[in-house]
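$ ./design --mode recover --in tokens.txt
reading tokens...
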């Protein structure tokens, strides 16, 4: 009976522990690493809510985590963007939507190559593709905003 209670308490405490700690780093670690990025808040959010990222022991680990996170988020954004196609009301909106899909496909292709361990990728290359991913996201959003349909089409 005591063993069963102990196992239950350990299971509950592991389930209720903050995700960042179960991923191998503390909220302080996350804040410290993410403060080195141009956008620390999204970095902190995604690292603390996704236990699959980590542990981060050195700068190269942090870069790998950021690349994987960017790839995962790009795939998520591409899926959401694909679903927006049915909301397009005219050819201009459809063209902006199509451009966004192409940007995401290209971004995902490049990030996949960057995270592939068999591909030689320098830190500068990785930084370039992280920046490009962000630029592509903003380009997509801007395209819809310029058409005046950002609030209607974008989630």
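writing sequence...
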């Amino acid at each position: 009976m005591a063993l069963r209670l102990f196992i239950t308490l350990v299971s509950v405490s592991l389930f209720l522990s903050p995700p960042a700690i179960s991923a191998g780093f503390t909220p302080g670690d996350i804040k410290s690493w993410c403060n080195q990025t141009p956008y620390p808040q999204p970095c902190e959010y995604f690292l603390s809510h996704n236990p699959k990222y980590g542990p981060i022991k050195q700068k190269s680990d942090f870069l790998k985590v950021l690349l994987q996170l960017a790839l995962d988020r790009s795939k998520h954004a591409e899926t959401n963007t694909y679903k927006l196609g049915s909301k397009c009301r005219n050819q201009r909106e459809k063209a902006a939507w199509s451009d966004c899909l192409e940007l995401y496909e290209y971004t995902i292709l490049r990030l996949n190559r960057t995270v592939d361990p068999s591909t030689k990728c320098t830190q500068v290359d990785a930084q370039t593709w992280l920046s490009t991913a962000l630029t592509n996201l903003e380009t997509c959003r801007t395209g819809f905003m310029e058409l005046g349909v950002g609030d209607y089409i974008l989630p």
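exit 0
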